[in-house]
Specification:
mainly beta, Rieske Iron-sulfur Protein, six-stranded antiparallel sheet, three-stranded antiparallel sheet, globular
Protein backbone atom coordinates (compact mmCIF):
# COMPACT_ATOMS: atom_id res chain seq x y z
CA UNK A 1 0.00 0.00 0.00
CA UNK A 2 1.10 3.57 -0.44
CA UNK A 3 0.16 6.85 1.17
CA UNK A 4 -3.12 8.41 0.05
CA UNK A 5 -4.16 12.04 0.10
CA UNK A 6 -6.63 12.56 2.94
CA UNK A 7 -7.02 16.35 2.81
CA UNK A 8 -5.21 19.58 2.14
CA UNK A 9 -3.29 21.50 4.80
CA UNK A 10 -5.59 24.43 4.13
CA UNK A 11 -8.60 22.26 5.06
CA UNK A 12 -7.36 21.63 8.61
CA UNK A 13 -8.47 23.88 11.44
CA UNK A 14 -6.06 24.34 14.33
CA UNK A 15 -7.04 22.41 17.47
CA UNK A 16 -9.87 20.56 15.73
CA UNK A 17 -10.00 16.93 14.63
CA UNK A 18 -11.09 15.94 11.14
CA UNK A 19 -12.35 12.43 10.37
CA UNK A 20 -10.88 10.79 7.28
CA UNK A 21 -10.97 7.26 5.95
CA UNK A 22 -8.28 5.48 3.94
CA UNK A 23 -8.84 1.95 2.66
CA UNK A 24 -11.61 1.43 5.20
CA UNK A 25 -9.51 2.68 8.14
CA UNK A 26 -11.06 5.61 10.02
CA UNK A 27 -8.61 8.19 11.39
CA UNK A 28 -8.71 11.50 13.19
CA UNK A 29 -6.33 14.07 11.69
CA UNK A 30 -5.37 16.99 13.92
CA UNK A 31 -3.43 20.20 13.39
CA UNK A 32 -2.31 20.99 16.94
CA UNK A 33 -1.50 24.38 18.45
CA UNK A 34 2.19 23.93 17.63
CA UNK A 35 1.47 23.44 13.94
CA UNK A 36 2.14 19.69 14.03
CA UNK A 37 -0.17 17.33 12.17
CA UNK A 38 -1.14 14.03 13.77
CA UNK A 39 -3.23 11.07 12.66
CA UNK A 40 -4.62 8.56 15.14
CA UNK A 41 -7.26 5.85 15.01
CA UNK A 42 -10.70 7.44 15.10
CA UNK A 43 -12.41 4.91 17.36
CA UNK A 44 -12.11 5.26 21.14
CA UNK A 45 -10.88 2.01 22.65
CA UNK A 46 -13.31 2.36 25.55
CA UNK A 47 -16.40 2.48 23.35
CA UNK A 48 -17.35 2.67 19.70
CA UNK A 49 -17.16 6.48 19.68
CA UNK A 50 -15.60 8.67 17.00
CA UNK A 51 -12.64 10.53 18.48
CA UNK A 52 -12.78 13.13 15.72
CA UNK A 53 -15.94 14.46 17.41
CA UNK A 54 -13.89 15.05 20.56
CA UNK A 55 -11.87 17.92 21.95
CA UNK A 56 -8.26 18.83 21.12
CA UNK A 57 -6.15 20.31 23.88
CA UNK A 58 -2.41 20.61 23.39
CA UNK A 59 -1.22 17.25 22.08
CA UNK A 60 -4.26 15.28 23.26
CA UNK A 61 -7.63 14.32 21.81
CA UNK A 62 -10.39 13.72 24.33
CA UNK A 63 -13.34 11.44 23.65
CA UNK A 64 -16.51 13.49 24.01
CA UNK A 65 -18.55 10.61 25.42
CA UNK A 66 -16.57 9.39 28.44
CA UNK A 67 -13.63 11.79 28.75
CA UNK A 68 -10.68 9.54 27.95
CA UNK A 69 -7.85 11.63 26.52
CA UNK A 70 -5.39 10.09 24.05
CA UNK A 71 -1.89 11.33 23.25
CA UNK A 72 -1.71 12.48 19.63
CA UNK A 73 1.96 11.47 19.61
CA UNK A 74 1.74 7.95 21.06
CA UNK A 75 -1.96 7.00 20.95
CA UNK A 76 -1.82 6.00 24.62
CA UNK A 77 -4.77 6.91 26.83
CA UNK A 78 -3.86 9.41 29.51
CA UNK A 79 -6.78 8.63 31.81
CA UNK A 80 -9.57 6.14 32.37
CA UNK A 81 -11.95 4.70 31.35
CA UNK A 82 -9.89 3.83 28.24
CA UNK A 83 -6.79 1.73 28.90
CA UNK A 84 -5.89 0.49 25.40
CA UNK A 85 -4.04 2.78 22.96
CA UNK A 86 -5.25 3.77 19.51
CA UNK A 87 -2.94 3.47 16.50
CA UNK A 88 -0.86 6.46 15.45
CA UNK A 89 -0.14 6.84 11.74
CA UNK A 90 2.78 8.43 9.95
CA UNK A 91 1.80 11.67 8.21
CA UNK A 92 3.58 12.88 5.08
CA UNK A 93 3.16 16.44 3.80
CA UNK A 94 3.61 17.01 0.07
CA UNK A 95 3.00 20.65 -0.79
CA UNK A 96 -0.56 21.28 0.45
CA UNK A 97 -1.44 17.57 0.53
CA UNK A 98 -1.69 15.53 3.73
CA UNK A 99 -0.85 11.90 2.94
CA UNK A 100 -1.33 8.85 5.16
CA UNK A 101 -0.74 5.15 4.61
CA UNK A 102 -2.95 3.15 7.01
CA UNK A 103 -0.44 0.28 6.86
CA UNK A 104 2.32 2.46 8.38
CA UNK A 105 1.92 3.19 12.06
CA UNK A 106 4.53 4.96 14.13
CA UNK A 107 5.16 1.73 16.01
CA UNK A 108 5.98 -0.10 12.78
CA UNK A 109 7.65 2.72 10.87
Amino acid sequence: MSASRVCGLSELVQDEARRVEVDGVAMAVVLDGNGEIHAIGDVCTHGDISLSDGFVEGDTLECWAHGSAFSLKTGHPLNLPAFEPVPVYEVVIDGDDVLIDPAVTKASA
